[in-house]
Design a protein that fits this description.
By secondary structure, the protein is α/β, with parallel strands linked by helices. It folds into 2 domains: 227 residues, Aspartate Aminotransferase, domain 2; 127 residues, Alpha-Beta Complex (Aspartate Aminotransferase, domain 1). The protein has 13 helices and 13 strands. α3 packs parallel to α4, α3 crosses α7 and α9 runs parallel beside α13. It is globular, with a radius of gyration of 21 Å. Bound molecules: pyridoxal-5'-phosphate. The site of pyridoxal-5'-phosphate has 13 residues, from α3.
Length: 371
């Protein structure tokens, strides 16, 4: 039986045509016209003034954190349950990640914990939208305003999702995205920074391009990075962006189909369909095993793999990461919801290339295993 991969991108629009244009015109580096086009179209679609395309979502976070003004000793409040890129960006800027636990239903950062984590050193809140539903941004924005904190929004997983009708990626002083192939739109590798602040935008552009001095190329006042996106990547991105609405519709169809097939399964928690602020977009279709006595996510994932079905484990919490524990960070910190998510959660095949038969087969095999 054919293996069902956890993700398969859909590249059946204008991708080939635009790539051919790059090759025929010779514009393959970051200087080509598709880069600017992607920046403008993506910013416009998200309702932001400035877009800065970069080489991946991790780079987007690294530049965004510096551009938001995070410096040595500054604290940034973020969820423990996220990808390491969020914490490493803060640490590389000299800052200190301060963690919160997650909400047991939405799996996003528990916004009720933010206020207690604020100290004199707190400079920003990093809100990371996880898997399908946004962080409660109204609460984050209120706390940030009352405490004069910057908001860094990581919208990598929720391209095109909305919070109370407003686009995710439009909330941060600076907001970031990833265009890795499992994202709603892909450029192979790639990322984007969005902001309405001209100074932040200019700083990100400079950081992305080695901080060349505007007045004299090859002279530098500051150390930057080469985070540039190529015209080839941007060409794919422009073609993908043309079909974002269709992709979102497809993600929701996949989510709905899994929901219908799995909703009777008392052994698992399936994603929340909607809250009063958003309808789930199912970037990935995550499930959480309810009873540890019946085994953890690793065991079920292994059995699914034996039946030809690809899965991915949930994130591994920041406070348990060996790389941080070895540095003495997050000692005696416990975030039980994040720990449970990482031990009991995993996601099913949910890429845009998935078809109905594959969903049916995945759900059937899963049901057999868990019951
Ligand atoms: C929430 C979040 N932020 C950042 C990233 C990093 O993006 P990239 O893999 O493009 O570096 C990811 C990765 O997939 C992510 O899920």
């Amino acid at each position: 039986m054919k293996f069902i991969p956890v993700n398969e991108p859909l590249l059946d629009g204008n991708e080939k045509r635009y790539l051919q244009e790059c090759i025929e015109s010779g514009w393959i580096s970051s200087e080509g016209p598709f880069v600017r086009m992607l920046e403008e179209k993506f910013a416009e679609r998200t309702g932001r003034k400035f877009g800065i395309a970069v080489c991946n979502g991790t780079a987007a976070l690294e530049a965004a954190v510096i551009a938001a003004g995070i410096k040595k000793g500054d604290e940034v409040i973020m969820p423990s349950f996220t990808i390491i890129s969020c914490a490493s960006a803060v640490i590389r800027a000299g800052g200190i990640p301060v963690l919160t636990d997650s909400d047991p239903l939405t799996w996003n950062m528990n916004t009720d914990e933010i206020r207690n984590k604020i100290t004199k050193k707190t400079k920003a809140i990093m809100a990371v939208h996880i898997y399908g539903l946004p962080v409660e941004m109204d609460k984050v924005l209120k706390i940030a305003e009352e405490n004069n904190l910057k908001v860094i929004e990581d919208a990598a997983e929720l391209i095109g999702q909305k919070f109370r009708g407003r686009q995710c990626g439009s909330f941060g002083d600076v907001s970031t995205f990833s265009f890795y192939p499992n994202k709603h739109i892909t450029t192979g590798e790639g990322g984007m920074i969005l902001t309405d602040d001209e100074d932040i935008a200019e700083r990100c552009r400079s950081l992305r391009n080695l901080c060349f001095k505007a007045s004299r190329r090859f002279e530098h006042d500051e150390l930057g990075f080469n985070f540039r996106m190529t015209n080839l990547q941007a060409a794919v991105g422009v073609a993908q962006l043309e079909r974002l609405d269709k992709f979102i519709e497809k993600k929701r169809q996949i989510g709905k189909m899994y929901n219908d097939l799995l909703k009777e399964q008392i052994e698992i928690q399936i994603p929340v369909v909607e809250t009063d602020y958003s309808e789930n977009i199912y970037w990935v279709y995550g499930i959480l095993l309810k009873n540890k006595k019946n085994g953890n996510a690793d065991i079920v994932m292994k059995q699914l793999a034996e039946r030809g079905i690809g899965t991915r484990p949930f994130f591994y919490p920041m406070h348990l990461q060996p790389v941080f524990r070895n540095k003495g960070m997050f000692k005696n910190e416990f975030y039980p919801v994040s720990e449970n998510l990482s031990e009991m959660g995993f996601y099913l095949p949910s890429g845009l290339g998935l078809n109905e038969d594959q969903i049916l087969r995945t759900a059937e095999e899963l049901k057999k295993i868990i019951s």
